[in-house]
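ok new one. same drill as before - structure tokens go in, u give me an amino acid for every spot. 153 of them this time. try not to just spam alanines like last time pls lmao
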């Protein structure tokens, strides 16, 4: 089983997916955000997380976390994983159709966003929306947009 990390800049739309095999070796690097500048490329090459051990060192760096977030996720998320994490709220068959239309990187972001959505709803004292509008409206993108604008969530 692979392990995936999402590496996000907090003040831009730069985002990378790093996938590591069971031995901790990098197997995939994918850019899913805007293209980095030359300066950002130089930084990435200097601190490149070529192993899972290296990305964990970067994730624990408190100075780096001021500018980036690094989230560990399952390498693949099935609809059943999402449905369980979401709390089985909504019409399963409709939610599955929406889920199946997502790109692989959106599936992981949607899965990660579930807990953030749940926390927001708890703070607002409001109910979780059905899974269908969460997926259709790409509610997980709200967190990225607000973080970039530095707005409170």
């Amino acid at each position: 089983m692979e392990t995936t990390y999402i590496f996000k800049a907090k003040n831009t739309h730069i985002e990378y997916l790093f996938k590591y095999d069971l031995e901790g070796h990098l197997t995939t690097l994918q850019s899913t955000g805007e293209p980095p500048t030359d300066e950002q490329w130089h930084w990435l090459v200097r601190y490149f997380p070529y192993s899972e051990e290296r990305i964990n060192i970067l994730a624990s760096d408190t100075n780096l976390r001021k500018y980036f977030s690094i989230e560990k996720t399952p390498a693949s998320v099935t609809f059943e994983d999402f449905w369980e994490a979401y709390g089985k709220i909504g019409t399963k068959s409709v939610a599955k159709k929406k889920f199946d239309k997502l790109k692989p990187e959106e599936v992981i972001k949607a899965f990660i966003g579930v807990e953030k959505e749940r926390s927001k709803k708890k703070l607002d004292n409001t109910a979780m929306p059905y899974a269908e509008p969460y997926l259709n409206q790409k509610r997980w993108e709200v967190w990225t947009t607000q973080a970039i604008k530095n707005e409170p969530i």
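Residues 14 and 34 are 5 Å apart (CA to CA). and btw The longest helix spans residues 104-124.
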